[in-house]
Response regulator with a HTH DNA-binding domain (Candidatus Gallionella acididurans), 210 residues
Amino acid sequence: MIRILIADDHAIVRHGLKQIIEESGEMRVVAEAGSGSEALRKIREIACDVVVLDISMPDMSGIDVLKQIHAERPQLPLLILSIYPEDQYAMRLIKAGAAGYMTKESAPAEVVRALLRVAGGKKYISPAVAEILANDLGTDEEKLPHQMLSDREYQIFLLLASAKTVSEIADDLALSVKTISTYRSRVLEKMHLNNNAELMRYAIDHHLAQ
């Protein structure tokens, strides 16, 4: 029996996933976590074969959780299940060590297939993600400005594009306002933008806005 840990801050999502997973007859949920720090603690304490991880988590971002887990247990497969469409985060998270990426709009049967695949040591690459990965093979000169941002810069770029203030982002990421302001300036400079309004327009034009 394949042992699954679910890390998502919404209890109703965890409940639904648990039902889907255990109805497969091949997997069972051995632990649940509602925050990033809880996910890390339970992964260290409880034996599991696959982690299902959301990237929007309180106290630690899913990206930071992913990198920490991958550093500590590089052989443990992590399947990202997120509200964000593939073109926002999939490429970055797979490069950071995720075994697969799918959205929460995915059909239950596809979630089961993805879990069984990553539990078997393979990557789960959906057609949408495959296309994104193929498009990312170009040189730096061919990449769009947002593709040149670091993971943290990109995360803050998306939060700014969703109309969150610097203070709100600082609270969300448990960082100082000064740190977020520095990242904001760096993002604007790298993307050759002048202000948040231009940043939001860029996100809309490139289908990155939520």
About this structure: The CA atoms of residues 176 and 182 lie 10 Å apart. The chain has two domains: 2-135, 140-205.
